[in-house]
């Protein structure tokens, strides 16, 4: 029997061997440092822009790269600003570099700033959901770089929801900062792949003039699980919140709480007037995450989803609460215009209000999803 066990171990050894670790674009400096030599560089980055344990800004300065300034997206350069809170121009205390806001009075970078640069780097961890606004900031930076004649370098990072292609494809009449591209809610692409698609499909002005370079992840497949080393924003603190975000983000267009102002944002659902079960929580003012969260200081009852297995997009939560609100003669979508912007269409809201089944709703997406799947093919960097 001992020889049989030895034989089995020999056969299984290659399968049991650890995979080569995933390396982000930033973790492959040999591929991009030569492109920065002698160049004046700007960075669109935040707290997720790491090279191992070191921030990309500090790493580049250590490598004698001439960093001129930092562009800050929603949540700010250090990732400690509330969702939707205006980000002001400032100066980084550690490096003394100027920080230019891309989430203040304007979402577009000033061309006069870009004209000081030769290259702008985008390196931000995304979560693969269309209404997460980092890809909108990338869009505006690409457009400004094209207008200014500045090269754009995207250091790619894995998509933690990369295995999923789901949800309605955005209709352009519902285009906004929470949805700028005709892509599904879950598009299954990395920021590097999406940048290539934005340029290739001419979704920005002067797309043909943009000099775009993407440094891909190494050893990455979109279906591999990927635990983010740094939370991408204050209210997505862990992998459960990131997995639930595609399904719970729609509740931002309702009077309900998704847990902002608690230790478990985007992992619970609650309301103060009626509920689905006895689980309770209370949102409170939480600096750096939610200063004035919905239903602040109220006892809420609803659903605890912290341990619920979840994959991709589910409509069950919306449909359950829609029925509960209707039974109390209440309107769930109290911000219908915002709901339609999140969904990229008014059809989803109307289908849910009408009482269509989840399968009926999903069936209505399939044609557009299949067309998008073919459309994105030329821009993919990793196997499907």
UniProtKB/TrEMBL annotation:
Name under which the protein is recorded: DUF1343 domain-containing protein
Highest classification ranks of the organism: Bacteria, Pseudomonadati, Pseudomonadota, Gammaproteobacteria, Alteromonadales
InterPro entries on file: NamZ, NamZ_C, NamZ_N
Residue ranges occupied by any Peptidoglycan beta-N-acetylmuramidase NamZ N-terminal domain in the UniProt entry: 41-239
Keyword field contains S-adenosyl-L-methionine: no
Gene3D superfamilies named among the record's database cross-references: 3.90.1150.140, Uncharacterised protein PF07075, DUF1343
Span of the signal peptide: 1-17
Keyword field: Signal
Pfam families xref list: NamZ_C (PF20732), NamZ_N (PF07075)
Residues covered by the Peptidoglycan beta-N-acetylmuramidase NamZ C-terminal domain: 244-382
PANTHER family in UniProt: HYPOTHETICAL 460 KDA PROTEIN IN FEUA-SIGW INTERGENIC REGION [PRECURSOR] (PTHR42915), PEPTIDOGLYCAN BETA-N-ACETYLMURAMIDASE NAMZ (PTHR42915:SF1)
Native source organism of the sequence: Alishewanella agri BL06
GO MF annotations, alphabetized: peptidoglycan beta-N-acetylmuramidase activity
